[in-house]
Amino acid sequence: MNIRELLFPKQINDKLIDALMQQIDEHKASLEDNIFFKSAMNVGYAYVTNVETNEIIWINDRLRNRIGNVVGKQCYEMFQNFDEPCTFCTNDELLYNGVGATKTWVHYNTMLEELLLVTDTLLEYTNGKKILYRFEISIPLTQQITKILQVCQTHKLISKP
């Protein structure tokens, strides 16, 4: 079983993508009204951007509570505090691999001050015009790693720094 299957069981992933595409059709940040999204999408930080423009289309409640409502702004400015697209952006890799492609990676976000397990997925939606979106969900790892280190230290599996 790979990371994608662990984070997105097949039956949930299809529902997420179907619901996301339905909401993107209206091109507004109204996913909060969908009960499925309220429960499934607040495990970590999640957002959707337009791949061509880097415009933030939607963010989940957990991310909104952390950084405010940034819908309509540029992802690299709001999530990384950069003036231009990130050098580590996965858009090019996702585009190369095609619609449905995923990239799972670990990233330390200096704005959030958290180590994150990140899964990006390239989505396509056509409603008269083909639009590509990047759906990203990031699971914070910092607290879990700290707990693991504490347990290891308690049981003398590793020494304290």
Widest sheet, order of strands = 2-1-5-4-3
Q: Strand-residue fraction?
A: 25-35%
**Roughly how much helix do the residues carry, as a percent range?**
25-40%
SSE-based structural type: alpha+beta
CATH architecture: 2-Layer Sandwich
Radius of gyration: 17 Å
CATH class: Alpha Beta
Number of domains: 1
Summed over residues and divided by their number, the pLDDT gives a mean of 77
The best one-word shape is: elongated
Q: Let me know the largest β-sheet.
A: 5 strands, antiparallel
Supply the CATH superfamily name: PAS domain
Distance between the termini: 34 Å
Secondary-structure element string:
HHHEEHHHEEEH
Q: How many helices does DSSP assign?
A: 7
Low-pLDDT parts are 1-13, 26-32
Q: What is the total tally of β strands?
A: 5
CATH topology: Beta-Lactamase
Furnish the topology, listing elements before pairings.
Elements lengths: L2 H5 L2 H17 L8 H6 L4 E6 L5 E4 L1 H7 L7 H6 L10 H7 L4 E8 L4 E13 L3 E11 L1 H13 L7
Antiparallel strand pairs: 1-2, 1-5, 3-4, 4-5
